[in-house]
Amino acid sequence: MIPDLSGWLSYGSFFLVFASAYAIVVLGLNLQWGFTGLFNVGVAGFVAIGAYTSALLTTPEMAGRLGGLGWPVAAGMLAAMAVTGLVGLFVGLLALRLRQDYLAITTFGIAVTIQLVANNAKGLTGGPFGVQFIPKPMQAWLGTGLPWTVAYLAMTMLLLGMVYIALEKLVQSPWGRVLRAIREDEDAASSLGKRAFAVRLQSFAIGSMLMGLGGAVYAHFVGFIAPEDFLPILTFQLWAMLIVGGSCNNRGAIAGAFLVWGFWTAAGGLLRGLVSQADQARAAPLQVVLIGVLIALILVIRPRGLIGEAVVVAQARS
């Protein structure tokens, strides 16, 4: 008797779509931190901007709420990248002259502000009730079952591949070498005639665009978003993915996204199996503890992550 594999395929596709969307975001974070040294702790806020932008532009018109323009999903995703990039440009102009801890505090504050606006601007974001009826591409042809999930996974993987190839070309270009030079010693790079602030601003804006794209991919997959989807814990998850995978290496960023999301999902399932339903809410923070243990183990065994910058350097010399 042949076992029914549809349930496993559906769950696997569901898992891979989330992992791929997060990988797109982590690639943007890797450009900012891994290649440029910009300590952005407000990633969840930029993901939220992309998700809400695409959702508001593509959903049908709804009384009492702005947006609802009914745009095609592809146009909504492009708009999400554009709006998030512009916000990143604005934030960069204000904050990128700060250094390390101060930049981190500023970007964290911006992310919290975005989450609070999403929670209170009911006429725009739906407030705590969120945005519903977000269109799902190809669903009119494929329905809501496994074929649609697999098709959306293929689309997400295609987007991830395109982002990876584009970033690889960027970071291997002279512009990418300037990024690393600025990260190592900004004053030295400036003394050689490199416009350090302008290049850092470009990197921050491009990374923000990718975070917005990841948010849009997430929104159109789940069909509903709310402010609770973009809490600071999301930023922690995304940073964990980059640390575990290895910064300044795009392959490492992707590998870290898949590994940490798999570990997070497995830890959640394990806790649900071991802890009674009445205590599951109190046990939920243990997922964060387990991710912290994973990060500590990776840093002890491989200080640069699974596929860190040293691998790239070795390949370049060979």
Structural description of this entry:
It contains 15 helices and no strands. It has helices at residues 6-35, 43-58, 73-95, 101-120, 122-125, 139-142, 146-171, 174-184, 186-191, 196-222, 232-245, 250-274, 280-283, 286-301, 309-317. It is globular, with a radius of gyration of 20 Å.
Task: State the main characteristics.
318 residues; mainly alpha; 15 helices; 0% strand
Cα distance spanning the termini: 52 Å
Our Rg estimate from Cα atoms comes to 20 Å
Strand percentage: under 5%
Largest sheet geometry: none
Could you give a quick summary of the protein structure above?
Helices cover 74% and strands 0% of the residues. It is built from 15 helices and no strands. The protein has helices at residues 6-35, 43-58, 73-95, 101-120, 122-125, 139-142, 146-171, 174-184, 186-191, 196-222, 232-245, 250-274, 280-283, 286-301, 309-317.
